[in-house]
Amino acid sequence: MSQVPIHDTPILGMATRPRVSKAIEYGHTTNFWVEYPSGLMDLTRSQHLTTDAVEPSLVSSTQLDIPVTGDRTIRVDKSKAAAVIIDMQNFFLHPELRVHKTGLACVDPLLKVIGSLRKQGVKILWVNWGFTDQELKTLPPAVARAFMKGGFEGPGTELPGNFGRLLMRDARNSELYGPLQEEYLNGQKEGTDLWIHKNRTSGIWGHQTALDLYLKENGITTLFFGGVNADQCVSGTFIDAYFQGYDCIMVEDITATTSPAGVLENVLYNAANSQGFVTNTSNIINASG
User: Is 165 helix (H, G, I), strand (E, B) or coil?
Assistant: First the structure.
């Protein structure tokens, strides 16, 4: 009698992972989560599992409880959380450079949720492509080739109009799209937002990247991800952060891609079932009060 192995279950339509029957602690002494039968996933690292397995109460002044897919709620420490917004730049979104309807649809919910997160003390990190001339001299061929399509001639080359050199720091095409640029500048003035350059698909790909250094220096452990493209730079950074032990939450309605149908679903499935969690901006805003 044949039986389909559990690992061959189709990606779409897989049954939700059931809640635990008793509380479980994952990790080790200093880096741990606790999951409770109620569906609570405590990511704050503030209280180890007690012998009586009593679920701790929410400390609303320092913590947020946010519903996620899979019939769970994650509890995060506001002071140890950051939003990582990837590549919402003119080069990827501006209608004069490309068609990205799903990416543009992320702009309004993104503006709403970052305002809510800022009020809770959560840092907003804008992680974007931004080459220097020195970096171009050592750019791997695969990275260079990835940008030599669709009429573009590769990093550092001139774009039409006044968009400047392709994804060079301070060029207009490297700025955030539309109202996002002004939103970042306002946040920068308030000390809530930070611009972090990257020179690979992942923003946390190598030893001591600017993003990883900032996160470690500021004790940040929980990351909310959004941006474009979901299956490239967003998932690349998400997976590398997962490998390095960060808590990774994909925010579904501020994440998009130009790839074919089914690709985004694949990214979200793996994010929720293997690498971390998936939520949406409404859940975050409602939890923020």
Answer: strand
* 66-84 exposure pattern, b = at least 16 Cβ within 10 A, e = fewer: bbbbeebbbbbbbbbbbbb
Contact 73, 35 (CB under 8 A): no
Measuring CA to CA, how many Å separate 5 from each of 2, 14, 271?
A: 9, 13, 21
Tell me if 244 sits within 8 A of 271, measured CB to CB: no
Torsion sign across C-alpha atoms 46, 79, 269, 144 = negative
User: Which regions in the chain score pLDDT beneath 70?
Assistant: 1-15
Q: Looking only at Cα atoms, what is the longest distance across the chain?
A: 66
CB 239 within 8 Å of CB 275: yes
Residue 8 has a pLDDT of: 47
Of 216, 191, 194, nearest in space to 127 by CA: 194
Distance CA 257, CA 264 (A): 7
Task: Give the whole-angstrom CA distance, residue 89 versus residue 28.
Answer: 39
Query: Tokens standing for 115?
Result: 């305002």
Question: Which pLDDT score, from 0 to 100, does residue 237 have?
Answer: 98
> Can you give the pLDDT at residue 12?
53
278 Cβ contact list (under 8 Å, min separation 6): 68, 69, 70, 249, 250, 251, 252, 268, 271, 272
The residue assigned the tokens 């405590």 is 42
The pLDDT of residue 213 is 97
Pairing verdict, β 40-42 and 24-27: unpaired
